[in-house]
Amino acid sequence: MEHNNHQGWYGETFVAAIAAAAGFQVAVPYPDIGKDMILGRDHEDPELDVQIALQVKTRRIGDLDPAGGLKITLTIDQFKRLRGRRQVPCYLVVVLVPQDPAAYVRVSGFELVLWHSAYWVSLEDRPLPIQQGQKSVTVTVPRENLLTVDAHEFFHRACEEVPAP
Question: DUF4365 domain spans which residues (predicted)?
């Protein structure tokens, strides 16, 4: 597999593994139009079912300067698909991956370790850039928004009324 495609596939799988550990279902939209995956959690009361949509970007460790957060450039179309209030909240997730795909995973007889880390941000309240002809916008993903199984603000924001299974 070509390196960039491999990196993107690994990044989405990395996020899916965390979501699965947090008790979410994972679906991949077909066709993918600005959202790479939908995470959902069913509740015994279907009115309390929840979903969140994700756009997943990957970067190799060392390609970003982590000072002040992770700077990611999005096209204006990508930005528009993530901003604003929606029935299904949308998040941008950035997965940092090792430079060498051979270092993505370490397996032993008692553990599976996925390298490296993912960070998230909501662009819901971000205004549209006002410069005419602007083709991209750079957003900052805070390093404190580490995506973990216990990332309460991320997973529980979408599930405020849905108890964990």
Answer: 11-152
Closest CA to 143 of 46, 41, 72: 72
- Residue 136, domain CATH: 3.40.1350.10
The three-state secondary structure class of 104 is: coil
Question: What's the burial of 76, exposed, middle or buried (CB within 10 Å: 0-12/13-18/19+)?
Answer: middle
- Provide the residue range defining the domain that includes 23: 4-157
Spatial strand order in the sheet of 50-60? 25-27, 37-41, 50-60, 90-97, 117-121
Q: What is the pLDDT of residue 17?
A: 95
In percent, how much of the chain has pLDDT > 90? Answer: 56
Please check whether residue 164 lies inside any domain of the structure: no
